[in-house]
Amino acid sequence: MEGFLYQLFAGLAMGGIYACMGLALVIIYQATHVVNFAQGEMAMLSTYLAWTLLGTGMPYWVAMILTLLASFAVGALVELLVIRRIPKESPLAVVIAMVGLLVIINSMVGWVFTYDTKDFHTPFSGKSPVPMLSSHEFGALLVTLVVMGLVFLFFRFTRIGLGMRAAAANPVSAKLVGISVGGMLSLGWGLAASVGAVAGVMTAPFVYLDPNMMMSIIIYAFAGALLGGITNPWGAVIGGFMVGIFENLVGAYVVGSELKLSVALALIVAIVTMKPEGLFGRRVVHRV
Amino acid sequence: MAMPERNAPLLSAKSPMIGFACCVIVGIAVMFFASGYLLLQCTQILVFAIAILGLNILSGYNGQVSLGHGAFFAIGGYVTAVLIAKLSVPFWAAVPVAGVASLVLGLLIGLPALRLEMLYLALATFSLAVAVPQLLKNKFVEGWTGGVNGLQIPKVQPWAAVGLDRDQTIYLYALIAAVIVFAMTIGLLRGRVGRALMAIRDHALAAETMGVDVRRFKTATFGVSALFTGIAGGIGAVATSFVSPDTYSFFLSITLLVGAVIGGLRSVSGALFGAAFVVLMPNYAERISQAAPWAIYGLFLIVFAFFMPSGLAGVIRSVQARVTASMRSGARTP
Fold first, then answer.
1. What is the model's pTM?
2. ipTM of the complex
3. Interface check B139 vs A, CB under 8 A
4. Which of A32, A91, B37, B248 has the highest CB neighbour count under 10 A?
């Protein structure tokens, strides 16, 4: 029983990371109707930024805040320079461009920082208040929960958050009431990049830092976002936690850790074929 | 009225046979004039051309997407390797069997793919591409696949009776496979089947009302696409006489996509151009940095997706059209 609880809580900690990545995916999907295949790579880039800043001897939390700001700028720039110029009428071209973005970020990081794995330390030390969690697991869970709470408050209670929701829900009407729709979309990408950065920095102490470190994380995040519903941010968060727990339990008791990723693949295929709107999403209906 | 005929470009739709025959002749000539590493590269180009053609038919002609075609390349490679190494099946029988295995897998994936929109299909196949190495080395199939260590394949016997060495023999096999696959594709796409595929791509509902069986065509296309890529994987495995999970990483799927996009998704000859690009370019770019080929791939994916959707084949076609046009106007003016 105790072993089971340990697995459950470890899954919860990873679930927080998947939930963050899933939330970032949904923010972008809602704003620009693009599935950001490069989300994991953007988070990886942010983590390398944090690693570089920490290397200068900067205090951890100062480095984190600078990383979040820089990630925000990178995300907004990507929207401004690439996404805005994509002709959206060809979904195939959009998918290809997103994969191109993934490959560019991955190779540029490999070019600058080499493909060697690097140690990335956790800021959390001492004894964790929850006996089932290590101090980093507990800290990561706390940080991801706080970040998701802040994002929720931002969308719910601020003018800019409201503007962003309006721009995503109905761009034409939003423009008519004076919202800068383009600006809101850039902000959405920036925000998503920052949320992803948190996930990346919290992931690195688990898996070491290397250019491919987010490659499997993003698959779990896709699975979580699809499970919860890619049209519903909170659904995606819940989905992320569910996938974290499910993946850990199945890995520990059913298929072994080598096949965990394949379980996520099976989950994705099952969701998209049987219930593409996810558990909490709304069904998208097209007029023919 | 004979004038336009005489001036028709070699590779145009009017004279595909001439263009095709020229390519085959060049292909045979390469076998005698290239040797060593260069010939190996040419074999690789043919292998990738077959695989990329599979992706072109699926994405360019039928409008479905696959970010995970490396999975079919892997199935082709591994089935061939297991048949040759473990069951001592001769090479010429192993590769077609591997192709059929890939075809079956393609049909199995094609069935659920029918229900998916582009975005969801992209997501599912992307996940497949990432999961392939894990599927290949997991403990349930380790006995067959050799796990992380991969599988060594006995070297192909050279066809000594006609004086070919081992590299030339493998090249010849690849060339024969490429000729069959390309001829089949050209034949299919020129007729009713090609029109049906493109009609589905451009407007599935309209195609359905015109009497095209959309479900059957889409599933079959996925199968044929997988068949081609699987055959390519089989020949590729024999050429390198080794398969391992790392050979079929996520980045292999992306390499196939890059080749297809750069060559031109909606063309048959584009598969050859794209294959030449992904095989030859890294040789030069890697001198700058290990990461340089990938940086170029990524950049080209974005640039070609938006500014040159018809790829290199499209560029060549428009140059040809311009040359013929100027030749014609030159012939008219005294």
1. 0.90
2. 0.89
3. yes
4. B248
